Amino acid sequence: MSPNPTLKTLALAFEYPRQGSLGVLWEQTHSLPHSPAKLHLERFLKAVSELKLSEREELHTRTLDLSPLFAPYVGFAVYGEDYRRGAFMAALSRGMRELGLELRGELPDHLAVVLSYLAIAAEPLPELMELLEPALAAMHKTLKTLEPDNPYLHLLEAVRQAVRELPRAKGQSQAQRSSWPSLGAQSSPGGGIR
């Protein structure tokens, strides 16, 4: 299976901004096929293109790193600090190791790592595919509540759109997917969806 270029680009967009990284993101985005995910990614890039590198660094740190506005961890968004997150991360880590994916100092449920995994996995971990949309909904709701003009809202929506375009695991019905929380999902203060 060849890597999914949209997911690879989205994973890159969640990395810490560096000199030249915005140009690389624009270049990769221009080569993507037209899709709703690409449109939202372009909105994110337009918004952050108006910022100096130091401002992009501050936005990234404020949004995703130190006391983040939302925690960019799939397992945390769904399970909080529950023991099930640990089991989920262990299974995800095994799947990533099997594909030779480097965690680059992140936990296996970090959104950038998850997107890199999805970009190359022919058959992603079924639990990940089940949890990803509700986790993204919870992340989006939290960020929108705390900072409704944050450009990362566009990036989260780009990820949601890209995930919707992924083939579903066998046995995963439309009824299961439609029962997932929408952008109105309730996330609890300690993480997890109520």
How would you explain this protein's 3D organization?
The chain has 194 residues and is mainly α. The protein contains 10 helices and no strands. The protein has helices at 5-13, 21-30, 36-49, 53-64, 74-79, 83-98, 111-120, 126-146, 152-164, 174-178. It starts with a helix and ends in a 16-residue tail after the last helix. The model is unreliable at 169-190 (pLDDT under 50).
Structure summarized in a few sentences:
This protein has ten helices and no strands. It is an all-alpha fold.
The value of Rg in angstroms is: 16 Å
Query: What is the general shape?
Result: globular
Largest sheet: none
Task: Tell me the span between the first and last alpha carbons.
Answer: 36 Å
Please describe the topology of this protein:
Blueprint: H1 5-13, H2 21-30, H3 36-49, H4 53-64, H5 74-79, H6 83-98, H7 111-120, H8 126-146, H9 152-164, H10 174-178
Helix pairs in contact: 1-2, 1-7, 1-9, 2-3, 3-9, 8-9
